[in-house]
Write a structure and sequence with these properties.
The complex is a heterodimer of chains A (105) and B (126). Chain A is mainly beta. Helix content of chain A is 0%, strand content 50%. In chain A, strands 2, 4, 5, 6, 9, 10 and 11 form a 7-stranded mixed β-sheet that branches. In chain A, strands 1-3-8-7 form a 4-stranded antiparallel β-sheet, with no helix packed on it. Chain A is globular, with a radius of gyration of 13 Å. Chain B has a 6-stranded mixed β-sheet, with no helix packed on it. In chain B, a hairpin with an 8-residue loop joins β5 and β6. The termini of chain B are far apart. Classes of the chains: A mainly beta (105), B mainly beta (126). At the A-B interface, β4, β5, β9 and β10 of A face β5 of B.
Amino acid sequence: AIQMTQSPSSLSASVGDRVTITCRASQAIRNDLAWYQQKPGKAPRLLIYIASSLQSGVPSRFSGSGSGTDFTLTISSLQPEDCATYFCLQDYDHLSFGGGTKVEI
Amino acid sequence: EVQLVESGGGLVKPGGSLRLSCAASGFTLSDASVNWVRQAPGKGLEWVGRVKRKIDGETIDYAPPVKDRFIISRDDSKNSLFLQMSSLKTEDTAVYYCTTGPAGFPLFGVIKRDYWGQGTLVTVSS
Protein backbone atom coordinates (compact mmCIF):
# COMPACT_ATOMS: atom_id res chain seq x y z
CA ALA A 1 0.00 0.00 0.00
CA ILE A 2 1.17 3.52 -0.78
CA GLN A 3 2.04 5.50 2.35
CA MET A 4 1.43 9.24 2.43
CA THR A 5 3.62 11.24 4.80
CA GLN A 6 2.25 14.69 5.52
CA SER A 7 4.04 17.52 7.30
CA PRO A 8 3.83 19.36 9.53
CA SER A 9 1.25 17.70 11.76
CA SER A 10 0.20 21.11 13.03
CA LEU A 11 1.06 24.73 12.50
CA SER A 12 0.11 28.11 13.84
CA ALA A 13 0.17 31.15 11.60
CA SER A 14 -1.22 34.67 11.44
CA VAL A 15 -3.96 36.03 9.24
CA GLY A 16 -2.42 36.98 5.90
CA ASP A 17 0.50 34.55 6.18
CA ARG A 18 1.49 32.21 3.40
CA VAL A 19 1.08 28.61 4.60
CA THR A 20 2.61 25.52 3.00
CA ILE A 21 1.77 21.89 3.73
CA THR A 22 3.65 19.03 2.11
CA CYS A 23 2.84 15.44 1.34
CA ARG A 24 5.27 12.76 0.24
CA ALA A 25 4.24 9.47 -1.32
CA SER A 26 6.16 6.26 -0.69
CA GLN A 27 6.26 5.69 -4.43
CA ALA A 28 5.54 7.73 -7.53
CA ILE A 29 1.85 8.48 -8.00
CA ARG A 30 1.99 10.70 -11.10
CA ASN A 31 -0.29 13.62 -10.19
CA ASP A 32 -3.07 11.50 -8.68
CA LEU A 33 -3.26 13.56 -5.51
CA ALA A 34 -6.03 15.55 -3.88
CA TRP A 35 -6.15 17.94 -0.94
CA TYR A 36 -9.02 18.12 1.54
CA GLN A 37 -10.08 20.49 4.27
CA GLN A 38 -12.03 19.23 7.27
CA LYS A 39 -13.64 21.22 10.06
CA PRO A 40 -14.78 19.61 13.33
CA GLY A 41 -17.94 17.56 13.01
CA LYS A 42 -18.08 18.00 9.24
CA ALA A 43 -17.32 15.79 6.27
CA PRO A 44 -14.12 16.64 4.39
CA ARG A 45 -14.27 19.12 1.53
CA LEU A 46 -12.25 18.75 -1.66
CA LEU A 47 -9.95 21.69 -2.37
CA ILE A 48 -7.57 20.45 -5.06
CA TYR A 49 -7.65 17.43 -7.38
CA ILE A 50 -5.11 16.03 -9.85
CA ALA A 51 -2.43 17.78 -7.76
CA SER A 52 -3.12 21.32 -8.96
CA SER A 53 -6.71 21.69 -10.20
CA LEU A 54 -8.88 23.92 -8.04
CA GLN A 55 -12.26 22.42 -7.17
CA SER A 56 -15.24 24.54 -8.14
CA GLY A 57 -16.18 27.05 -5.44
CA VAL A 58 -12.84 26.90 -3.61
CA PRO A 59 -11.14 30.28 -3.07
CA SER A 60 -8.18 31.00 -5.32
CA ARG A 61 -5.87 31.49 -2.33
CA PHE A 62 -5.63 27.68 -2.26
CA SER A 63 -3.24 26.10 -4.74
CA GLY A 64 -1.54 22.77 -5.20
CA SER A 65 1.63 21.67 -6.92
CA GLY A 66 3.84 18.66 -7.36
CA SER A 67 4.14 15.43 -9.24
CA GLY A 68 5.65 12.01 -8.65
CA THR A 69 6.28 11.74 -4.93
CA ASP A 70 6.31 15.29 -3.57
CA PHE A 71 3.32 17.58 -3.34
CA THR A 72 2.47 20.90 -1.77
CA LEU A 73 -0.70 22.69 -0.71
CA THR A 74 -0.29 26.45 -0.38
CA ILE A 75 -2.65 28.94 1.19
CA SER A 76 -1.41 32.27 -0.15
CA SER A 77 -3.01 34.48 2.49
CA LEU A 78 -4.40 32.66 5.51
CA GLN A 79 -7.91 33.66 6.54
CA PRO A 80 -9.68 32.96 9.86
CA GLU A 81 -12.08 30.56 8.15
CA ASP A 82 -9.12 28.44 7.02
CA CYS A 83 -8.69 27.07 10.56
CA ALA A 84 -9.17 23.38 9.90
CA THR A 85 -7.35 20.12 9.39
CA TYR A 86 -5.97 19.43 5.92
CA PHE A 87 -5.41 15.99 4.41
CA CYS A 88 -3.77 14.78 1.24
CA LEU A 89 -5.20 11.77 -0.58
CA GLN A 90 -3.63 9.64 -3.30
CA ASP A 91 -5.86 7.74 -5.70
CA TYR A 92 -3.15 6.34 -7.96
CA ASP A 93 -3.36 2.85 -6.44
CA HIS A 94 -6.39 2.28 -4.26
CA LEU A 95 -6.61 5.28 -1.92
CA SER A 96 -4.65 6.43 1.08
CA PHE A 97 -4.69 9.60 3.15
CA GLY A 98 -1.92 11.57 4.76
CA GLY A 99 -1.97 11.95 8.54
CA GLY A 100 -3.36 15.48 8.46
CA THR A 101 -2.17 18.99 9.30
CA LYS A 102 -4.06 21.05 11.84
CA VAL A 103 -3.90 24.74 10.97
CA GLU A 104 -4.51 27.27 13.71
CA ILE A 105 -4.51 31.02 13.74
CA GLU B 1 -29.59 17.69 -5.98
CA VAL B 2 -26.89 15.08 -5.47
CA GLN B 3 -27.06 13.45 -2.07
CA LEU B 4 -25.52 10.51 -0.25
CA VAL B 5 -27.18 9.36 2.96
CA GLU B 6 -25.61 6.72 5.19
CA SER B 7 -27.51 4.63 7.71
CA GLY B 8 -27.09 1.51 9.78
CA GLY B 9 -24.54 2.56 12.34
CA GLY B 10 -24.83 1.66 15.99
CA LEU B 11 -23.33 -0.16 18.94
CA VAL B 12 -22.09 -3.70 18.37
CA LYS B 13 -20.00 -6.11 20.44
CA PRO B 14 -16.55 -7.23 19.34
CA GLY B 15 -16.89 -10.12 16.92
CA GLY B 16 -20.30 -8.93 15.80
CA SER B 17 -21.61 -7.78 12.45
CA LEU B 18 -23.25 -4.68 11.07
CA ARG B 19 -24.47 -3.58 7.66
CA LEU B 20 -24.18 0.03 6.56
CA SER B 21 -26.17 1.52 3.70
CA CYS B 22 -25.45 4.51 1.47
CA ALA B 23 -28.46 5.73 -0.48
CA ALA B 24 -27.76 7.97 -3.46
CA SER B 25 -30.11 10.48 -5.03
CA GLY B 26 -29.70 12.96 -7.86
CA PHE B 27 -27.35 10.73 -9.82
CA THR B 28 -26.87 7.10 -10.78
CA LEU B 29 -24.52 5.44 -8.31
CA SER B 30 -23.04 3.08 -10.90
CA ASP B 31 -21.83 6.09 -12.92
CA ALA B 32 -19.34 6.92 -10.15
CA SER B 33 -16.63 5.16 -8.22
CA VAL B 34 -17.83 5.19 -4.62
CA ASN B 35 -15.68 4.76 -1.54
CA TRP B 36 -16.19 3.98 2.10
CA VAL B 37 -13.95 6.14 4.31
CA ARG B 38 -13.87 6.06 8.11
CA GLN B 39 -12.62 8.33 10.85
CA ALA B 40 -11.98 7.07 14.36
CA PRO B 41 -12.77 9.59 17.13
CA GLY B 42 -10.14 12.32 17.12
CA LYS B 43 -8.14 10.62 14.37
CA GLY B 44 -7.47 11.07 10.67
CA LEU B 45 -9.24 9.70 7.64
CA GLU B 46 -8.83 6.08 6.59
CA TRP B 47 -9.93 4.58 3.29
CA VAL B 48 -11.92 1.38 3.79
CA GLY B 49 -12.74 0.28 0.25
CA ARG B 50 -14.52 1.15 -2.98
CA VAL B 51 -16.44 -0.10 -5.94
CA LYS B 52 -15.31 1.36 -9.23
CA ARG B 53 -17.86 2.75 -11.65
CA LYS B 54 -19.48 0.50 -14.22
CA ILE B 55 -17.38 1.73 -17.16
CA ASP B 56 -14.21 0.93 -15.18
CA GLY B 57 -15.30 -2.65 -14.58
CA GLU B 58 -16.98 -2.32 -11.16
CA THR B 59 -13.86 -3.65 -9.44
CA ILE B 60 -14.12 -3.81 -5.66
CA ASP B 61 -11.01 -3.08 -3.56
CA TYR B 62 -10.40 -3.11 0.19
CA ALA B 63 -7.85 -1.65 2.56
CA PRO B 64 -5.68 -4.31 4.23
CA PRO B 65 -7.13 -3.83 7.77
CA VAL B 66 -10.64 -4.76 6.60
CA LYS B 67 -9.95 -7.18 3.76
CA ASP B 68 -11.58 -10.56 4.46
CA ARG B 69 -13.89 -9.00 7.09
CA PHE B 70 -15.81 -6.34 5.17
CA ILE B 71 -17.78 -6.76 1.94
CA ILE B 72 -18.91 -3.92 -0.32
CA SER B 73 -21.89 -4.41 -2.59
CA ARG B 74 -24.18 -2.25 -4.68
CA ASP B 75 -27.86 -2.60 -5.52
CA ASP B 76 -28.55 -0.66 -8.69
CA SER B 77 -32.31 -1.09 -8.32
CA LYS B 78 -32.09 0.83 -5.03
CA ASN B 79 -29.28 3.13 -6.18
CA SER B 80 -27.53 2.16 -2.97
CA LEU B 81 -24.16 0.96 -1.73
CA PHE B 82 -23.67 -1.35 1.23
CA LEU B 83 -20.85 -2.21 3.61
CA GLN B 84 -21.26 -5.55 5.35
CA MET B 85 -18.92 -5.60 8.32
CA SER B 86 -18.18 -8.79 10.23
CA SER B 87 -15.71 -9.93 12.90
CA LEU B 88 -15.75 -6.36 14.16
CA LYS B 89 -12.94 -5.14 16.39
CA THR B 90 -12.79 -2.24 18.80
CA GLU B 91 -10.44 -0.50 16.37
CA ASP B 92 -13.26 -0.44 13.78
CA THR B 93 -15.01 2.17 15.91
CA ALA B 94 -15.39 5.22 13.68
CA VAL B 95 -17.70 7.44 11.71
CA TYR B 96 -18.17 5.78 8.34
CA TYR B 97 -18.69 7.93 5.26
CA CYS B 98 -19.56 7.03 1.71
CA THR B 99 -18.06 9.37 -0.84
CA THR B 100 -17.50 9.68 -4.56
CA GLY B 101 -14.07 11.13 -3.76
CA PRO B 102 -11.92 13.18 -6.12
CA ALA B 103 -12.55 11.00 -9.18
CA GLY B 104 -14.99 12.74 -11.48
CA PHE B 105 -18.21 11.33 -12.89
CA PRO B 106 -20.48 12.75 -15.56
CA LEU B 107 -23.79 14.30 -14.59
CA PHE B 108 -25.85 16.04 -17.30
CA GLY B 109 -22.70 16.66 -19.33
CA VAL B 110 -20.71 18.13 -16.44
CA ILE B 111 -17.96 16.37 -14.52
CA LYS B 112 -18.84 16.25 -10.83
CA ARG B 113 -16.57 15.33 -7.92
CA ASP B 114 -16.49 14.70 -4.24
CA TYR B 115 -19.89 14.12 -2.72
CA TRP B 116 -19.99 12.90 0.88
CA GLY B 117 -22.70 11.59 3.11
CA GLN B 118 -23.19 12.88 6.65
CA GLY B 119 -21.53 9.81 8.13
CA THR B 120 -22.81 7.09 10.42
CA LEU B 121 -21.17 6.17 13.73
CA VAL B 122 -20.15 2.60 14.39
CA THR B 123 -19.14 1.79 17.95
CA VAL B 124 -17.59 -1.58 18.69
CA SER B 125 -17.54 -2.17 22.43
CA SER B 126 -18.43 -4.82 24.96
